[in-house]
C-alpha cells in the first residue's frame, strides 16, 4: 500500500496560501532550494507551511548554503519549529563555493550536528545525472544510506526504468512524478528551473511518445503496475507540482 502523495512546491509569493487551500491538512509539502531563488524564501516558506499544519520538508542545498555558520543558523530555526525532515542535496553548484563540498558532505555535517532530530532525505537518479551515470549514482546512494532515511527520484518518464532502479536503491524510496500539467508547460518549466538530470527523455526510445502528449495518470498507473509485477517496494509518489496546485477547495 503506497502512502499519500508528497507534493513539491517552489517558494514563490503566495504559495503557502495556495497549498493550504488546495491540500489536505498534514500533507507532506517539500520546498525547493533552486538556483535563482533566495535560500531565505525556502526557509520562510517551510516554516509557514509547518505553522499552517503541513508537514514541511525544506530542501537544504550545499551550493546554496555555502558556510557552516549559515547552516547552523538555518538548523537552529528549524530546531525551534515543527519541521522534522530535511531534503539534503548538493544543488549542482560550484563545489569550491561551499564548505561542504557536495551533498554527501552536507548530509554528514547535518547528521553529526542534529543526530536524529530530523529525518534526512537524498536525491536519486534513475537515468543518471550529468555528473555521473546510473551505476555511480547507486554507489553514491549506498554510501549515503547509513546517514539518510529516504530517497526521492528525480523525474523519469519510463515506468520500467523506475521500477528497475527502485529494486536497487538501498533506502525507502519516494518516486518522483510530475503533476498533471501539459507537456509544453512541463518542458518549459523543467528547462527553466533545472528539474531532471537532462531533458533528453523526449528523444529516447520509449519516451518519444511524450512528444505527442503526456498523461501523468498513465505514468503513475504504469509505475504501480510495474512495482506490483516486480514485487519492488516503494513508499509512494513525490509530486513535482511546478506550483500547478489544484484550485482552492476551501473558503
Alpha-carbon distance between the two ends? 32 Å
Percent strand equals 15-25%
Low-confidence stretches: 193-212
SSE class: alpha/beta
| Total helical segments | 9
Q: What strand order characterises the main sheet? A: 1-2-3-4-5-6-7-8
Largest sheet: 8 strands, parallel, barrel
**CATH architectural category:** Alpha-Beta Barrel
So what's the CATH class?
A: Alpha Beta
Q: What helical percentage do the residues reach?
A: 25-40%
Shape: globular
Order of helix and strand elements from N to C terminus: EHEHEHHEHEHEHEHHE
Task: Report a brief summary of the structure.
It contains nine helices and eight strands.
Descriptive report:
This protein has about 250 residues and is an alpha/beta fold. It has a single domain, classed as TIM Barrel, CATH 3.20.20.220. About 35% of the residues lie in helices and about 20% in strands. It has an eight-stranded parallel beta barrel, surrounded by four helices. Helix 7 (about 160-165) runs parallel beside helix 9 (about 215-230). It is globular and about 45 Å long. Keywords: FAD, Flavoprotein, Oxidoreductase. InterPro entries: FAD-linked_oxidoreductase-like, Mehydrof_redctse-like. This is Methylenetetrahydrofolate reductase.
Amino acid at each position: 500500500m503506497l502512502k499519500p502523495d508528497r507534493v513539491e512546491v517552489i517558494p514563490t509569493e503566495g504559495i503557502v496560501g495556495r497549498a493550504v487551500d488546495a491540500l489536505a491538512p498534514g500533507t507532506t509539502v517539500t520546498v525547493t532550494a533552486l538556483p535563482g531563488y533566495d535560500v531565505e524564501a525556502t526557509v520562510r516558506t517551510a516554516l509557514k507551511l509547518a505553522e499552517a499544519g503541513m508537514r514541511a520538508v525544506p530542501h537544504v542545498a550545499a551550493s546554496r548554503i555555502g558556510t557552516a555558520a549559515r547552516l547552523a543558523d538555518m538548523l537552529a530555526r528549524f530546531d525551534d519549529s515543527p519541521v522534522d525532515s530535511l531534503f539534503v542535496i548538493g544543488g549542482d553548484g560550484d563545489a569550491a563555493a561551499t564548505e561542504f563540498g557536495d551533498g554527501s558532505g552536507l548530509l554528514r555535517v547535518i547528521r553529526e550536528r542534529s543526530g536524529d532530530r530530523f529525518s534526512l532525505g537524498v536525491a536519486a537518479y534513475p537515468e543518471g545525472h550529468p555528473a555521473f551515470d546510473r551505476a555511480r549514482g547507486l554507489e553514491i546512494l549506498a554510501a549515503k544510506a547509513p546517514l539518510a532515511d529516504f530517497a526521492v527520484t528525480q523525474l523519469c518518464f519510463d515506468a520500467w526504468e523506475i521500477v528497475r532502479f527502485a529494486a536497487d536503491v538501498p533506502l525507502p524510496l519516494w518516486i518522483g512524478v510530475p503533476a498533471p500539467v501539459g507537456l509544453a508547460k512541463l518542458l518549459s518549466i523543467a528547462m527553466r528551473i533545472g528539474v531532471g538530470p537532462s531533458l533528453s527523455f523526449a528523444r529516447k526510445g520509449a519516451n518519444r511518445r511524450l512528444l505527442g502528449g503526456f498523461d501523468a495518470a498513465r505514468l503513475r498507473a504504469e509505475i504501480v503496475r510495474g512495482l506490483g509485477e516486480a514485487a519492488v517496494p516503494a513508499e509512494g509518489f513525490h509530486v513535482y507540482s511546478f506550483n500547478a496546485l489544484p484550485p482552492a477547495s476551501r473558503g
